[in-house]
Write a structure and sequence with these properties.
By secondary structure, the chain is of the alpha/beta class. It has 11 helices and 13 strands. Helix content is 36%, strand content 19%. Strands 8-13-12-9-11-10 form a 6-stranded mixed sheet, sandwiched between helices. A 4-stranded mixed sheet has the order 3-4-6-7. The structure holds ligand AR6.
Length: 352
């Protein structure tokens, strides 16, 4: 199933730019976190390469021309090229080079480029003793990603813990559990509740009737019956009346559902936008609560491995979630710095 990744390569570029001239532990952590997110979201590095003579011959390329082939689909990465390196004479060590965009790679001398996903290249680099690390964007806002940093990123990373989006009908999703925006009597109703009861079948009504209802903010679990999902977690969102305590009830719904899921060894869970239909909770605030609780929960339980899917029934709701998320990401990454960018090659120093 294709869920939409949350982040693009800007999660690396922004914190690197923001750290320029102001490198400290905090800015470095922001960059490493960006690299970890990029790795989990299928982002790629553009790495300059040197083709072997055999590959040049086989591809019919003339060594004397300035031709700059993009060999992505033409060559075998195991045999046809080596990655270009920057040699640091001071330490006599080699650094690999990676660009985050075509624009960045064009700031320096041209080279054939190989595009490689971060999840592929980072573990490989971690295993090569002869390489000191990767210089990201050496002709622009260079950042030296040491091997020890890559090892740390891989150590703390759990690729199973992520947030995804899905556009459509939650009853079609093949995940461990889907969440139902139910009512306190658990009797079934309209909206997503009605759709879930209809697909899960009559056995769900019977199971729900034996649960003794569910208070606002609480969560209860049943099997998924005729659904593709193994379980249904029923939670009751607050009816929005503008009294002020609705936000904490809605947060409880997400929190209790995630905790209950973990108790049942559930590792993928899809949420609808609880309370935003018949219960009239404003969508933007609801999305912000949902994303906030989910990201905090994933951070707190980073060892567990949980895929949280936000299933948006229509494009408007998906737009709202993505806008809220992008605002949250902006708060994590300081805004772009204005001012000239140093285009000189910055060779990393061993004691940096
Ligand atoms: N898949 C995903 N999302 C859906 C689907 C679906 N098949 N159908 C609707 N939505 P609502 P609430 C979205 O009204 O506000 C019931 O009668 C919908 O677009 O289902 O928590 C219960 O029995 C909206 O964004 O739930 C309760 O009485 C979101 O799901 C009451 O409604 C929630 O809308 C609960 O109201």
């Amino acid at each position: 199933m294709a869920f939409q990744p949350l982040y693009d390569i800007s999660v690396i570029e922004k914190p690197i730019k923001a750290a320029l001239g102001n490198e400290n532990t905090e800015t470095t952590i922001a960059i490493l976190e960006g690299i970890r997110l990029a790795m989990n979201n299928y982002c790629t590095f553009r790495m300059p390469i040197v083709l072997t003579d055999e590959a040049i011959e086989r591809l019919g390329l003339n060594e004397d021309t300035d031709e700059n082939p993009n060999p992505d689909e033409m060559v075998d990465p195991e045999h046809d090229f080596t990655l270009r390196t920057l040699h640091n004479d001071e330490t006599n060590k080699d650094w690999l080079v990676a660009f985050t965009s075509e624009e960045e790679s064009k700031k320096g001398p041209e080279s054939a480029i190989y595009t490689v996903p971060l999840f592929d290249i980072l573990p490989r680099v971690a295993g090569i003793d002869a390489v000191e690390g990767i210089v990201i964007n050496p002709w622009g806002t260079a950042f030296t990603l040491r091997r020890s940093m890559i090892e740390e990123i891989l150590r703390i990373n759990n690729p199973e813990s992520q947030i995804f989006f899905n556009l459509g009908d939650i009853t079609t999703l093949e995940c461990d559990a889907i969440v139902n925006a139910a009512n306190e009597r658990l009797t079934g109703g309209g909206g997503v509740d009605g759709a879930i009861h209809q697909v899960a079948g009559k056995r769900l009504n019977k199971a729900c009737s034996e649960l003794g209802g569910c208070k606002t903010g609480e969560a209860k679990i049943t099997k998924g019956y005729d659904l593709k999902a193994r379980y249904i977690i029923h939670t009751v969102g607050p009816v929005y009346k503008g009294k002020g305590d609705e936000a904490s009830y809605l947060a409880e719904c997400y929190l209790n559902s995630l905790n209950l899921a973990m108790e049942h060894n559930i590792h993928s869970i899809a949420f609808p936008a609880i309370s935003t239909g018949a219960y009239k909770f404003p969508a933007e605030e609801a999305a912000s609560i949902a994303l906030d609780i989910a990201s905090q929960w994933l951070e707190l339980h980073s060892e567990y491995g949980m895929q949280v899917i936000f299933c948006c029934h229509d494009q408007d709701m998906l737009d709202i979630y993505q806008r809220v998320l992008s605002d949250m990401t902006k708060q994590m990454n300081p805004p772009d710095l204005q001012g000239p960018v140093d285009l000189a090659l910055q060779i990393p120093k061993a004691d940096e």
